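Progress against Task 2.4 (sequence-to-structure conversion) is shown through the following example record, which the project officer requested during the mid-term review.
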Amino acid sequence: MNKINFLFYLLTMLAISFVTLGHGTTETTENANQTKHMYRGSSITREELTQVADLSSARDQKGNPVTLEEESYSIGSFTKGTVTIVPKSGKADEVITLDLKPN
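Structure tokens generated for the chain above:
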């Protein structure tokens, strides 16, 4: 009888651990995409830019509006309100500035 109780206890503890682990995993995946870290020189895709910047505000160095045609960019610099990117296939003088979205 003690062996049956012990096995029942182990199965109960195993079931509780699966429920607890599954709940923790769900919380982690829900919060995983809330922060985008930007570093000078790092790569960023157009899709990632749509999450942090207003693509309609894209402009060249002279202030003329431009469209983002490349899929991947390098981050040149950023401030509290703007990010400067350079197309991966372009030259360093093809700088594009975008306004960041407010939090």
